[in-house]
Amino acid sequence: MSDQALFELAPVTLSLADYSALWNTFQNWRAQGVRDISEHFLADHQRLRQCWQDVTLLRVNQRALNMYGATSQAEMIARFRETIQADRLTDLLNWFVALWDCHADLQHLTCDTVRYSLQGKRMDVRLHATVLPDSPAPWSRVLISAEDITSKLAIERENERLACVDHLTNLSNRRDFITKAATELSRAQRYNAPLTVLMIDLDHFKNVNDCFGHHVGDRVLSAFADKLRHCVRDVDLTGRLGGEEFAVLLPNTSAQEATDVMNRLRAELAEAPIASTEQHSIFLTISVGLAELTPSIASVEAFLSKADSALYAAKRNGRDRLCIG
């Protein structure tokens, strides 16, 4: 069977390209002392564009035509540079950095990047490249297979999201909240910035479950999460730590500012029922413990513990109130 037949019958998307001009450019830059190719490209985006012009597409198989939406090999060869968008040069940068790091040995290069069909459809793509042994010059015959991993990555991202999110409220779960809070704590300590954490407990929530059932209790939790999410900023971190216990981390926020936020939320809860049944309107009050970051707090656990102590003080003193630890 001929090489052309094997190329066409391959069960993957294939292209054959001439990268020899890019090889020569890279060798010249190395001779000039370039060490960090990323910095070199980012210092002048025109270098990226010029290197992309140095690449020549020689051949593609039918699977490649289908993937990129080309009607013929001639169209694909003429328009293949459109698979990179002018305002998305970082996608091209990733590929060229991977090539640079290979030096002369381009045998098992794999790179995840972004490409576009000729109709503008965005695709997450995994590229595999190797130089064919019969290449007359370095990188003059580079065989590249391209795998569209858009759906695979979307599933992976969704699985990662689900692992971090409380399924009922769509807030961060306990593990995700603590992980992200640790990052914010380190940032606040590094820049000596204010940071406040709130621990929130829904007062007498057990009565809701006992009187109306867990399905209504779930509605109350979900509705409260919505109100909590809407009363804080996008930069604030909200989480359900378990049961009816919630937490909020507010970067660059003083104790007084955080108190104002909670007072607005408590006023909203007092004005209207959080949920309703056919016979009853369910009103909700909350107890809140507040802690402000101090030099003595060295960990997220210690920070939450301080707020938790303030929360229990609020509950001991009659609930429906905020206490500062």
Shape: elongated
Query: What can be said about the biggest beta sheet?
Result: 5 strands, antiparallel
The helix-and-strand class reads: alpha+beta
What is the helix/strand order? HEHHHEHHHEEEHHEHHEEHEEEHE
Number of DSSP strand runs: 12
- At the fold tier of CATH, the topology name of the largest domain is Alpha-Beta Plaits
State the end-to-end CA separation. 79 Å
Number of domains: 2
The CATH architecture of the largest domain would be 2-Layer Sandwich
Helix content: 40-55%
Alpha carbon gyration radius: 29 Å
Q: What's the total helix number?
A: 13
Verbal overview:
This protein has 325 residues and is of the alpha+beta class. The protein has 2 domains: 153 residues, PAS domain (Beta-Lactamase, 2-Layer Sandwich); 160 residues, Reverse transcriptase/Diguanylate cyclase domain (Alpha-Beta Plaits). It has 13 helices and 12 strands. It has a 5-stranded antiparallel beta sheet, sandwiched between helices. A 5-stranded mixed beta sheet has the order 7-8-6-11-12, sandwiched between helices. A hairpin with a 5-residue loop joins strand 3 and strand 4. Helix 10 packs antiparallel against helix 11.
Show the helix and strand layout:
Blueprint: H1 3-9, E1 13-18, H2 20-31, H3 37-42, H4 45-54, E2 56-60, H5 62-68, H6 73-79, H7 89-102, E3 109-116, E4 122-131, E5 142-148, H8 150-164, H9 174-191, E6 195-202, H10 205-212, H11 214-231, E7 237-242, E8 245-251, H12 255-271, E9 275-276, E10 281-282, E11 286-292, H13 300-316, E12 322-324
Parallel strand pairs: 11-12
Antiparallel strand pairs: 1-2, 1-5, 3-4, 4-5, 6-8, 6-11, 7-8, 9-10
Helix pairs in contact: 4-7, 10-11
